[in-house]
Each structure stands twice: as structure tokens, then as C-alpha cells.
Write a structure and sequence with these properties.
This protein has helices at residues 3-12, 20-27, 32-47, 55-69, 78-101, 107-114, 183-197, 207-212, 230-245, 252-267, 271-280, 285-297, 309-316, 318-324, 341-350, 388-408, 462-479, and strands spanning 177-178, 181-182, 216-219, 331-334, 339-340, 359-360, 363-367, 373-380, 416-422, 425-435, 438-448. The protein is of the alpha+beta class.
């Protein structure tokens, strides 16, 4: 291990100020295995110091013992794993570029060069600051936030399974027109300009820009668009809302009052009256099931803040999802053990060594007939919610791959649903492919799960949003049940 990296450990390890990313960049290793070997070797050297001639020797021996006793946990943290994952992505990108250009690259030198710009952005909020929320106007305070905005991220966004980088719309292509405005043309032109901008490795894309490279058009009325003009974007979001409103349940208001009454009793800690209230209510059986589950979960002293992802999913959202999506003739629900089969194809095309790698959703609804995924949940705990943007990008790509596979099987006009669960915030999205090269990714809703029994009132709007999603999923499930001879004439839409 080089002297600079050793000095950094001695200065920061004991006082808990060690920035693991800064350390790895000072260390300059090409992969995690080499890094850990160096760390363990230097630890053994420090522990075996026989004669403590100076205070520095004493510190080395003390810190070496502490690192060994703590089993090098700080160097194997989730942040460390994310760092080495990103390094692997960069190395893969370089390999692909070498294969394409037949240029001999020195991978180690290239990785060191790429490390001169920070590979990670770390901030205390779940949203990317470049993805600007409408009500913030950029005025949020940066206190308590670790950020490296001035050092741009080195990423190759063009490493993908796309058949082509730039797209040319033809006159006969199916285009999306809204009030005589050609949305398809505007979207594709913007996408092509982004492709040109990130042809080097120094471009840091915003969320909707990154999605556009895969022809995914993010439509989120809570945020400004970097793709479409503001007036057009707002009209498109209104149009999409009107389209999906037809899936809303018609009796939402009938049970809202009784659900509110349940919440009131729970916040007042009248547990002896809650069960009787649920039983005597006129609510449907599946809503009563949800309320009983919440009653047994949100007891006094319970809080979701420190839960890991699996427990957060089990306690926070599955109690809603299971009653809304019970196993039926059309589909089956799965926990975190069901792979998204299309993700394996994407991984293998990018790097053949990833042929056994597959993405698994934290909860999914899968068609019993076609075996395609119709609904996928990705979750991040409160501690990791800053990484939710990456989850959204990944899961949207897998949803697009799934839609492509569905269309190749002769189905058309199928919608699939994605849910991103981040801390206590849940956002739901619907993806469709109705025009050449344009996959709409519409944020259908957003709600918050209760942190504890004091804010249990947060559950009131959840039923409306999930009822709408259930109807969307069921419609798609029924389409995927049709036999080949009974399907509508498939529309062969173009994809990137």
C-alpha cells in the first residue's frame, strides 16, 4: 500500500472521519481483491511491530489491531461495494470500447485517470439535485450534505444493449402527436443531442436524460423536464393523468371516512377499541385485512426508521400489496426470490461473464400464462434512500426489456407497473410502448407510509392509488392470457 493511503488511515480511522471513497482513490487499486489484500497485509505489518520506537509506531499497532478486531468492516461497507461495482462498470466499458476499436488500452492507467473525477455523488436527500422538484426552486440548504458537484462523474452512458446510438425517424414511423405538436420528433432530437454530448466520458446526465438514452420518456408532473418544452410537458402529463384516471376505483370516498376513524383510534392508542371498530365497519374484507395487519404492526414504540430493506418491505408495503394483488387465475405474486428474466439477457449482452447474473425485484406480480412480470417493487431503506435514483434507472430498463419481449410474442398495448419504495416514500410508475422509439414512463402516484402510529393517517390515500394500479395490472394480465390465434394483430413498433 502506498504511503499516502497509509497516512490517510492513520489520520482518520480512529476518529471515524475516514471517507472510504477518498481512501480507495488514494490507494489506486484496480479491483476490490487487490485492495483488500493490501489492507490486510499492511494491518499484519502494523500488528507485528515488535519495537515501538515512536508514537507513530504505537498508533500503527493500535489501529492495526482495531482494524483486525472490527474485521475490516469499513472497507466492506455498502458504500465500498458500490464503489467497486462502479469501477467494474468502467472497466467493462473500456473492454467493450477496446473490442470495438481494436485499440490496446492500459486498463489500470485508464481507471486511475477516470478516478481523477469523483465517481460518486453522496447527498442526504433521496432525489438527485439535477432532477429539480418544482416546489424547491433550488433553494434547499446544503448544510449536512456531502456533495461533489464540481467534479463531474466519469461514466460511459452509451454502454448498453442498444442496437444504435442515434435514431432517425422516418415519415412512415408511428409518431406521438399532441395538439399538432410532434412529441416523438422533439423527444428523439433531444435524445440524439444527448448521445452526442456523452460520447466522451465526462458527461453527468440528469435522470430523465439518462432514461432517454434507452428511449424512455419520464413523465413526472412533480418535476421539470429536461427533455420537452415546459408547456408541452405539462400538457402531456395532464393527458396521461386523464388516460389513467379511467382505472380509478369508483367507491374510494365510501371507505375513506371509516379508514380515517381507524387512524384516529390508533393515534389515540385506544387499542382495545380498534379491533372492534374494524370488525363492525362496513369496509370490504380485503381492506379490513390491511387494517388488522397495520394494527398489529404499528404498536406503541414501533418505528420504521432503522429497519433494513427486507423488514421495511414486509412491514411497510407488503401488508397493502398482498390483499390488493392476491394470487388468482391470471397472475401470481412473488417475494424477493423471483428473477426478472429479461435482465439476464441485458447483462449477458453487455458482458458474457455476467451470464448467470439476474435482477430480482423485492416484490413482483407475474403472469401465469406468459410468465412475464407485470409489477415490480424496488426498495431502499431510510439509510440508503439516496440510491433510489439508480434503482429507478435500472428497473425502468428491465421494464422496457420486458415490454420488448412481450411485443415479440405478439401482444400489444400492454402496460407494466413499477414501484420504488425509498425510506417512507413510495412512487408508482406505469410504462407503455405505443409509438415507435418512445416508451412512456408515467409517475401515476406517490404516497408515504407511516413512520410510527402517530402518523398512521398517511395510509388514507394509499387505497386509491393501489386500487388504480390493480386495475391496470389486471387489464394487462388478461391480455397476456389470450391464445395466439385470439390476439389482436400485433403492432410491430420500433425500439432502439
Amino acid at each position: 500500500m502506498n504511503t499516502e493511503a497509509q497516512e490517510y488511515i492513520l489520520s482518520h480511522y480512529e476518529v471515524s472521519t475516514l471517507d472510504i471513497i477518498e481512501f480507495f482513490e488514494l490507494q489506486g487499486c484496480i479491483n476490490q481483491k487487490t485492495s483488500m489484500n493490501q489492507i490486510m497485509n499492511i494491518t499484519a505489518t502494523w500488528i507485528n511491530i515488535k519495537v515501538l520506537k515512536t508514537s507513530k509506531d504505537t498508533a500503527k499497532k493500535r489501529i492495526g489491531n482495531k482494524m483486525y478486531e472490527e474485521n475490516y468492516e469499513v472497507f466492506k461497507s455498502e458504500e465500498a461495494i458500490a464503489y467497486w461495482t462502479q469501477k467494474t462498470i468502467i472497466l467493462t466499458a473500456l473492454k467493450i470500447k477496446q473490442a470495438a476499436s481494436q485499440i490496446n488500452l492500459n486498463y489500470a492507467d485508464a481507471l486511475v485517470e477516470s478516478s481523477k473525477t469523483r465517481t460518486f455523488l453522496i447527498c442526504s436527500e433521496s432525489e438527485d439535485e439535477d432532477y429539480i422538484q418544482k416546489d424547491s426552486y433550488g433553494s434547499s440548504s446544503s448544510s449536512g450534505r456531502r456533495q461533489y458537484r464540481d467534479q463531474r462523474t466519469a461514466r460511459d452512458y452509451l454502454v448498453s444493449t442498444n442496437k444504435q446510438d442515434s435514431i432517425k425517424l422516418l415519415p412512415e414511423d408511428s409518431k406521438w402527436l399532441l395538439s399538432s405538436f410532434n412529441i416523438s420528433e422533439e423527444f428523439i432530437n433531444k435524445r440524439n443531442s444527448i448521445v452526442q454530448e456523452c460520447s466522451g466520458l465526462d458527461k453527468n446526465l440528469k435522470l430523465d436524460e439518462e432514461l432517454s438514452l434507452n428511449c424512455i420518456l419520464l413523465l413526472d408532473a412533480d418535476f421539470f423536464s429536461n427533455i420537452l418544452p415546459t408547456n408541452v410537458y405539462e400538457e402531456v402529463c395532464v393527458s396521461m393523468k386523464e388516460h389513467y384516471d379511467k382505472y380509478k376505483e369508483k367507491n374510494n370516498d365510501l371507505y375513506a371516512k371509516e379508514v380515517f376513524g381507524f387512524c384516529l383510534l390508533l393515534t389515540q392508542e385506544k387499542s382495545d377499541k380498534v379491533e372492534k371498530y374494524i370488525e363492525e365497519s362496513t369496509l370490504s374484507f380485503f381492506i379490513k385485512t390491511i387494517l388488522f395487519s397495520l394494527m398489529n404492526t404499528y404498536v406503541k414504540g414501533y418505528c420504521i426508521k432503522d429497519l433494513d430493506e427486507s423488514t421495511l418491505v414486509k412491514d411497510g408495503i407488503v401488508s397493502f400489496l398482498n390483499p390488493f394483488f392476491p394470487n388468482c387465475k391470471e397472475y401470481t405474486t412473488f417475494g424477493a426470490d423471483k428473477p426478472i428474466k429479461e435482465s439476464n439477457t441485458r447483462f449477458s449482452k453487455i458482458d458474457p461473464s455476467l451470464s448467470k447474473h439476474v435482477k430480482k425485484a423485492d416484490f413482483s406480480v407475474v403472469s401465469n400464462y406468459s410468465k412475464y412480470i407485470l409489477f415490480a417493487l424496488e426498495s431502499k431503506s431510510e439509510k440508503k434512500k439516496m440510491k433510489s435514483k439508480g434503482d429507478l434507472v435500472k428497473i425502468s430498463k428491465y421494464m422496457k426489456d420486458t415490454l420488448d419481449a412481450i411485443e415479440r410474442d405478439g401482444y400489444s398495448n400492454v402496460s407494466i407497473v413499477d414501484m420504488v419504495f425509498s425510506g417512507d416514500s413510495v412512487s408508482t410508475y406505469v410504462m407503455e410502448h405505443k409509438h415507435d422509439y418512445v416508451y412512456t414512463f408515467y409517475k401515476q402516484g406517490r404516497f408515504y407510509i407511516p413512520s410510527d402510529h402517530h402518523d398512521i393517517f398517511r395510509i388514507v390515500p394509499v387505497f386509491s392509488i393501489l386500487g388504480q394500479l390493480k386495475n391496470i395490472v389486471m387489464e394487462s394480465a388478461k391480455k397476456l392470457c389470450t391464445l395466439e390465434h385470439a390476439r389482436n394483430e400485433p403492432v410491430c413498433l420500433k425500439s432502439v
